[in-house]
Amino acid sequence: NPVADWKLQPTVKSSADAYQVLKEFYNNDTIAMVERFNVLYLSNSNRVTGVYQLSKGGITGTVADIQLILGTALKTLAIGIILSHNHPSGNLCPSTADKDLTRKLCKAAQFMDLKILDHLILSPEEGQYYSFAEKGEL
Question: pTM, whole model, 2 decimals?
Answer without folding.
Answer: 0.90
